[in-house]
Amino acid sequence: MLKCNAQPNVDFGIKGGLNLTFFKVPEAQFGNTIQTETGFYGGLFTDFKIDETVHLQPELLYIQLNDFKFINAPIYAKFQLSNKLSFMAGPSLNYFFDFFVNKFKVRGDLASAYNISNHLDIHMKFVVGFTEVAPNGLFLGIGYTF
User: Fold this and answer.
1) Alpha-carbon gap, residue 58 to 113, rounded angstroms
2) CATH code (residue 21)
């Protein structure tokens, strides 16, 4: 009889929180100023464990800022710095429902997460837009792994 003691290499979870988005706005003849909008986000993630320190973590998030709504799908390379702290980076694919003529944008994400317990984490990510019409954002939230 063959026994297999391998642990599952895939975890699933939910996450959500606060989104602060920063837009550059022209200010008369004096250059650009930053305008901030506050919203929320929520969604699902999958964590594929490649080895003890490297994971692949795709996510699918719904984001709303007032009347501004879009789907955000980051694909992270996740690095476990310790059993409590991780760092993530990767491209972020975005579909904007009703704001832009060109509704698909690619942005870059940098994120970190701190595990409060085996199932609960707090996380923060910074999203960098590559053009002025793809705004930068700061996300602060919690995640739960099943």
Assistant:
1) 15
2) 2.40.160.20
